[in-house]
Every structure is written in C-alpha cells, then in structure tokens.
Write a structure and sequence with these properties.
- The protein is mainly α.
- The protein folds into 2 domains: 3-191, Lysozyme (Orthogonal Bundle); 241-326.
- It has 11 helices and 2 strands, in the order αααβαβααααααα.
- It has helices spanning 3-13, 21-37, 43-56, 72-80, 98-103, 115-128, 160-179, 187-191, 204-215, 240-297, 301-326; strands at residues 64-65, 90-91.
- A two-stranded antiparallel sheet has the order 1-2.
- Helix 1 runs antiparallel to helix 7 (160-179), helix 2 (21-37) runs antiparallel to helix 3 and helix 3 crosses helix 7 (160-179).
- It is elongated and about 120 Å long.
C-alpha cells in the first residue's frame, strides 16, 4: 500500500484538507493492526472501522474518554452524571457499563484507553458482534457494502449517514493506495509532511567571492563542486500488502478448485441419471412395439383384407401423384 497516496486522499475527503498528528498516527495504528492481526480483512471492512473510530473518538482517532473534548473538572462533572459511572465510555469505540468491560476481559476501566486494548476492542467487537450481536460481515463484504446499516454493529442508526460517507471516502483512498506504486519509506515518513529545508550555510569560497564581488575586484568565485559517491541502488523488498494480496488470491484459487470438483461430481451424477432415463425409454418403446404387433396378429381375416386394400389404394394414389408430377 502506498501510504502517501492514502493520506493525500483521506486528508482531502475526510479531514477537510488538514490532518493532525494524532489523526495520522491513529490511521497508521489501525491499518497496521489490520495487517498484523487480521490480514484477511478486506479494505471495505477496514474503511468502516476507520470511519467508526473517527466518529467515536470525536474525530481525534486516538482512545478517548466519554465527554471528549472536555477536560479537567468539566469532564469529571459531566462523567459523574452518567448513569453507568464509573464505567463510562472509553477507547476507540465507546465501551459502557461494567458488564461490557468484563466481556472484553477488561478488569480496570482505564485499560480501555491503552492502544493495544482499544485496537483489540475495535476489531473484535465489530468482527465478532460483541457490541450489539450484529457482525461487520453482516453488512460489508468484498462484494457488498451497506455502510449505512453497518452502524447497527456498534449502535443504532445515529450518525449512520455521516459515518457511511467517511467509510466510502476511506475505502476509495485505500483502493487508490493499493493500486499505486509502493514507496519504500517508513510509515511515519510517508504520513508526516516534509519539514521545510533549512537555509544553506555559505561556504568559505562563497563568502570570499561575495566580498570580492562587493568591492568590484573580480566576479564571484565558484566553489569547487564536492565529489559525490554514487548512491547504491535501492534494494527491492517485498511489501507486506503484496504478500497479503497473494495469499488472498491463493485462497480464492483453492476455493475455485473445490467448487469445480463439486460441479464435476454433480455432472457425473446427472450423466448417470440420463443413462437410466435412456434405458427406461427404450424399455417403454419395446413394450409399445410388442403391443402393436400383438394387436395386428389378432386382426380377423376380413379386417386384414380391408387393411391390405387400404394399403393398395394408398400405393395407387402415390403412383398417380408421381405421374402427375412428372407430366
């Protein structure tokens, strides 16, 4: 994945053209967690988790307490009025009530603010349906994305349209980043803006030339260009994203082979059934032929004579027709 392309697109479509360092770091941690813990998760699902975390954390994309962006005494006053105090919302998805903290194996409520715990709750809660019994896969797959109703995985349909809009934007950014050439730089360097270049310090030759130029003694001198060693060619390293894609392709090929085997078995069974039908039809035809022969054998001599006369008349008619056609 080309993270520069991802952030260039997400910055404009989701964050209004500007991202804080907290938002950059949060996106990186969620993407890294998917790659290391849930590599089979499709980008459409990852996009919805990014959009969910963006909303649930008050757009900060780092684990927060319920009531953010309030702080200090104002935040505590707000939280003490909540009916589930002190088990108020915390994390990348706001977990509330003691029983829900226990369901995630969290004994101390403050632990939900730790990055490793918050990421685990975000992914496992949505994938396994631990928030509302609705699972992420109920609404989002590689072929179907119902981003609006996917809000039921975490809550009701509050802010479902807002989250769905950001999920579509994140998904588009992930698709563009996956199709772009991978830049072999660390994630942090790709995500952060480049620092402004410091002004160059004049060399000794430059200062002498500047002084002579001011007094008109001679034109500015040019400092000898430093000899630079050619940089070694970059070493190509396989991208984890390319490996993950290759694994997914291999899994799909295995699934297709299994499907072809199943279809081949069904075709063989149908072929056997067709052979049985042919045998049955042949048997019925033989029985009917036998019945017709027996019926003809039982004809009386008069009936047989009448039948022979009819056959003779038909032959005469056929002969007359042939003669008329040749005349």
């Amino acid at each position: 994945m080309n993270l520069k392309v991802f952030f260039d697109n997400a910055r404009d479509t989701v964050f209004g053209g500007r991202m804080s360092q907290s938002q950059v770091d949060g996106c990186l941690k969620i993407i890294e967690y998917r790659d290391t813990h849930w590599p089979k998760m499709v980008d459409a699902e990852l996009a919805y988790l990014l959009a969910t975390a963006e909303w649930e954390t008050g757009h900060s994309l780092h684990p927060v307490e319920e009531g953010y962006p309030l702080s200090g005494d104002a935040l505590r006053v707000y939280q003490r009025k909540l009916r589930y105090w002190p088990w108020y919302g915390r994390g990348l998805v706001q977990i509330t009530w003691e029983r829900n903290y226990k369901a995630f194996g969290i004994e101390k409520a403050e632990d939900a603010l730790k990055w490793d715990v918050a990421l685990r709750c975000l992914f496992e809660g949505c994938i396994k349906g631990m928030f509302t019994s609705k699972k992420l896969s109920d609404y989002i797959t590689s072929k179907r994305q119902d981003y609006v109703n996917a809000r039921r995985v975490v809550n009701g349909l509050d802010k479902a349209d807002h989250i769905a809009k950001n999920a579509r934007a994140f998904h588009a950014a992930l698709i563009k980043a996956a199709s772009a050439a991978v830049v072999s730089k660390p994630m942090q360097q790709l995500a952060q803006p480049k620092p402004a270049a410091a002004p160059a310090v004049p060399s000794m030759w430059g200062r002498i030339a500047e002084a002579l130029d001011k007094i008109g003694a001679q034109p500015p001198a040019t400092a000898p260009a430093p000899v630079r060693k050619p940089s070694p060619p970059p070493v190509a390293t396989p991208s984890p994203d390319i490996l993950a894609v290759a694994l997914r392709i291999e899994e799909r090929q295995i699934a297709m082979l299994e499907l072809l085997k199943s279809l081949s078995a069904e075709m063989s069974a149908l072929k056997g059934q067709m052979e049985q039908v042919k045998v049955h039809v042949a048997s019925l035809r033989a029985e009917k032929d036998a019945e017709i022969t027996a019926a003809l054998d039982k004809l009386t001599p008069d009936a047989q004579a009448q039948l022979d006369a009819i056959k003779a008349d038909m032959a005469s008619v056929a002969q007359l027709a042939a003669e008329a056609a040749s005349a």
